[in-house]
Amino acid sequence: MARPAAAGYIARPVHPFFVSLGGTLLMAAFFTDYMYASNALMQWANFSAWLITGGLVLALVATIILLVELALRRTGPIRWLDFALLAVAALLSIANVFIHTRDAWTSVVPSGITLSAITAILLLIAGLRGWRVTADPVITRGDY
Question: What is the pLDDT of residues 73-88, one digit of tens each?
Answer without folding.
Answer: 888 899 999 999 999 9
